[in-house]
Amino acid sequence: MKEIKKLLVANRGEIALRVLRSAKEMGLQTVAIYSEADRNALHVRYADEAVCVGGPQSSESYLRGDAILEVCRRLGVDAIHPGYGFLSENAEFARMVTEAGIIFVGPSPEAMNIMGDKLSAKQAVKAYNIPLVPGTDEAISDVEEAKRIASEVGFPILIKASAGGGGKGMRIVNNAAEFEEQMQLAINEATSAFGDGSVFIEKFVTGPRHIEIQVLGDEHGNIVHLFERECSIQRRHQKVIEEAPSSVLTPELRAEMGRCAVDVARACNYTGAGTVEFLLDEHRNFYFLEMNTRLQVEHPVTEQITGLDLVKEQIRVAQGLPLPFTQDELTITGHALELRVYAEDPQNNFLPDIGTLTTYVRPQGPGVRVDDGFEQGMDIPIYYDPMIAKLVTFGKDRTEAIERMLRAIDEYQITGIQTTLPFGRYVLRHPAFVSGDFDTNFVRDHFTPADLDAKPDETTAKLAAVLTAMLMTEKKAPVAASGAPATATGSNWKRNRLGVR
Ligand code: MV4
């Protein structure tokens, strides 16, 4: 075992604070780094020591691997937690850290390299029986060959950049006539954005759900999955609401996707916490898309339903300890939702809204968790992500988690800036969301800014009607389609399987 005594968090905002809290509970000494824009930030005050590493721009501070390593040497740091974003998926940084004799709390640089490129990820999982979207598993540059494959796969197809991610460098092609132009655009975009023009083709799945599986691996070859997160409610590839468990997975499908996720992790000898992304189509076929080699923003919903602290687990496996549980020992209890609260104006095309948090009062009470990095009176800096907070609620079932989220949104008081809280309230009250019948097109299909002007009474009445309908269905159908008892894991998720097409 490689004991960690002093941990540096190479990040800012809510995730820096989140990691520091777990480190403190574990009795570790903590070091924060910060930029000139974050002098008064909460993570700086929370850590035992804090060092300014440069200017407000990320490139002058949070992305400066050399400066961060210098702080580690000076303060005798034995491990770095990278959080998400910034250097968290930078294999070169992970290698530098390891070569400096410091523990990188995350996977090996090799695993990061394999999964950082979508085509090499597809190659790596080839030896396993992982379903992939029909298409090519190699870079394609010959337009005629690409067209031939596209017509075999069938339109619409999607051209994706191998080095891309989060929707960057994707092009939908509806017919052969558009093909050549779109392919050239995709290659040019990929070349200028990633310095790598490799593209490939996939059948375009038109109304998919985005389901991801949390995995955790140790250095002794043990890998488990921690069930799924449903992340279909997003706007322009920015997630808005995440939940666990998903209301569309049967226990059988959950186990099958879980096994595949573990195999994806095995394909790159994954260690630490990671996430395997799948698309689920309307017939509930699933396809592996990519793997994210970091702790994700939405990890709290998994923590709430499993009772685990993922940051502690990350730190333990980074010290070389074996996982303290087996797959069979893991169960789902209750239901959790996360609403991302952004400093954006939903009435004005979600334009980032910067300024001072004149009023900032967090919701409290049963089943509410707020992960944030701000206090009343602070400014939201313009240099970083506009996410102010993650509002997480949990309850015995999905209905209770929704009711608590609506109550928590009402308690949340933020003035001085516009936020996405009203948008969150709108989504949580929408019959399609409440019934579970939605896909990644939810926001496009169901939202216009005028919806936020609706009288609260009208939407409340609508919600009451839907909840009543759900309660009646629960009484009629408390048993899963498989005929298995509905609460084998102590979870009520099966009762919520409405809207399954
Ligand atoms: C797809 C797809 C449909 N068909 N691939 C977007 C982000 C990246 N991780 C993969 N993405 C998609 N890939 C095929 N073959 C639809 C999406 C997609 C999407 C995926 C997950 C969550 C939200 C999304 C929104 C639009 C498109």
TrEMBL record:
It holds the Pfam family Biotin_carb_N. It is an enzyme of class 6 (ligase). SUPFAM superfamilies: Glutathione synthetase ATP-binding domain-like (SSF56059), PreATP-grasp domain (SSF52440), Rudiment single hybrid motif (SSF51246). The keyword Oxidoreductase does not apply. Residues 481-491 have a biased composition (Low complexity). Its EC number is 6.3.4.14. GO terms for molecular function: biotin carboxylase activity. Keywords: ATP-binding, Biotin, Ligase, Magnesium, Nucleotide-binding. It comes from the Bacteria. SMART domains: Biotin_carb_C (SM00878). Residues 122-319 form the ATP-grasp domain. InterPro entries: Acetyl_CoA_COase_biotin_COase (IPR004549), ATP-grasp (IPR011761), BC-like_N (IPR005481), Biotin_carboxylase_complex (IPR050856), Biotin_carboxylation_dom (IPR011764), Biotin_COase_C (IPR005482), CPAse_ATP-bd (IPR005479), PreATP-grasp_dom_sf (IPR016185). Residues 481-501 are annotated as: Disordered. The keyword Nuclease does not apply. NCBIfam families: accC, PRK08591.1. PANTHER family: CARBOXYLASE:PYRUVATE/ACETYL-COA/PROPIONYL-COA CARBOXYLASE, METHYLCROTONOYL-COA CARBOXYLASE SUBUNIT ALPHA, MITOCHONDRIAL-RELATED. This is Acetyl-CoA carboxylase biotin carboxylase subunit.
